Amino acid sequence: MLGKSSWIMLKAEVSQVLLARAFSQSVASGEAVKPWSWADTWPVAEITLPRIGETAIVLNGATPESLAFGPAHVSETPRPGERGTSVIAAHRDTHFAFLKDVKVGDLVSITRSDGLTFRYTVTGLRVADWNRSGIDAHAPGHKLVLTTCFPFGSVVRGPERYIVEAVMVQ
Q: Closest by alpha carbon to 149, among 102, 114, 100?
């Protein structure tokens, strides 16, 4: 079990290096660049939380395969910076373990692969059942939700999700 958890953590760390390289190439070229030849996803954004010193590359499509390598943008929601609520999800024990340290008022910066950067301020933190999140992708304004499983540190799957809500700032 120790070996398996070490493998998951190692894969998460190494993948972020390859994803960062692919993201930089995407920004420079304006084209989607896969992090490795057999990848079924590609980087679409970089998320940064300056107060806690965390940065992660966000992948296209929140499938089980992409979530194994990093946070992922939920395809059925607008891209960060667009009208509505953009949702980014990741696992609580790897790429979004730091969400437990986020506080209301924190700044979240998202740079998309087209080079545009958007800034959000965290307005709320809550726990909800996975099927009763109340997240509206078509809500007015420009919003961002970061979400992961809850409780942090649990080794079993559960129905609850930790939800960080933010609104775009000028």
A: 100
